[in-house]
């Protein structure tokens, strides 16, 4: 009897571990400078990790300096790990599209170049379908007054950016750039998505 109980407990523990392992999924978005956008997704309930990095280019292990030339084809992106039981991919897409200008090709504010393009890198067919559907609805409703130019592409190799780019706003929030450019985005986030934010 003890042996059966031990086997059952082992099976339950394994099933629970597998279920927990499936709780985290990935979303990858490019929406301009990752310094400006990383802090937004870090504030959302259900987001467990955000890494700034590079994706969509031709060069393996690119450096920030190489990506900044625009010659590598990479975009500055965020790789977001999230718990879909707490926040859905649809909700992440909503934050993505409302937190930058998806109508400007290869530009966000003063930042211009293909590395600042608006892009969704999808990780599965469901993410592609949701991104395409959302983009089509935005364009049908003329939500931005101009066509959404966001690219929807299959995920490619992701390269983590250098350490000094990670948690940039958390480490440098008092810097003039952070106060002038990132803080207004955070204030907008507080207004629009207050119920979705971590305490």
UniProtKB/TrEMBL annotation:
Its EC number is 1.8.4.11. Residues 1-19 form the signal peptide. SUPFAM superfamilies: Peptide methionine sulfoxide reductase. It comes from the Bacteria. The keyword Ligase does not apply. Keywords: Oxidoreductase, Signal. It catalyses: [thioredoxin]-disulfide + L-methionine + H2O = L-methionine (S)-S-oxide + [thioredoxin]-dithiol; L-methionyl-[protein] + [thioredoxin]-disulfide + H2O = L-methionyl-(S)-S-oxide-[protein] + [thioredoxin]-dithiol. It holds the Pfam family PMSR. The keyword Lipid biosynthesis does not apply. Residues 26-178 form the Peptide methionine sulphoxide reductase MsrA domain. One of its GO terms (molecular function) is peptide-methionine (S)-S-oxide reductase activity. Transmembrane segments: none annotated. The active site is at 33. Belongs to the MsrA Met sulfoxide reductase family. PANTHER family: PEPTIDE METHIONINE SULFOXIDE REDUCTASE, PEPTIDE METHIONINE SULFOXIDE REDUCTASE MSRA 2. Has an important function as a repair enzyme for proteins that have been inactivated by oxidation. Catalyzes the reversible oxidation-reduction of methionine sulfoxide in proteins to methionine. This is Peptide methionine sulfoxide reductase MsrA. It comes from Pedobacter agri. The lineage of its organism: Bacteria, Pseudomonadati, Bacteroidota, Sphingobacteriia, Sphingobacteriales. The gene is msrA.
């Amino acid at each position: 009897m003890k042996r059966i109980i031990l086997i059952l407990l082992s099976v339950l523990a394994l099933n629970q571990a597998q279920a927990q392992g499936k709780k985290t999924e990935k979303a990858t978005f490019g929406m301009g400078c990752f310094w400006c956008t990383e802090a937004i997704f870090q504030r959302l309930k259900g987001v467990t990790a955000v890494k700034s990095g590079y994706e969509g280019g031709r060069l393996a292990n690119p450096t920030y300096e190489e990506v900044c030339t625009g010659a590598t084809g990479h975009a500055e992106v965020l790789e977001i790990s999230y718990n879909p039981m707490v926040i859905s991919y649809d909700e992440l897409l909503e934050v993505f599209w409302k937190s930058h200008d998806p109508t400007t090709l290869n530009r966000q504010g003063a930042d211009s170049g293909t590395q600042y393009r608006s892009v969704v890198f999808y990780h599965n067919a469901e993410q592609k379908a949701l991104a395409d559907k959302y983009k089509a609805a935005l364009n049908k409703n003329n939500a931005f007054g101009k066509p959404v130019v966001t690219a929807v592409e299959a995920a490619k190799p992701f390269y983590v950016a250098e350490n000094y780019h990670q948690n940039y706003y958390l480490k440098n929030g008092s810097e003039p750039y952070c106060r002038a450019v990132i803080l207004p985005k955070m204030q907008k986030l507080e207004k629009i998505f207050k119920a979705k934010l971590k305490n």
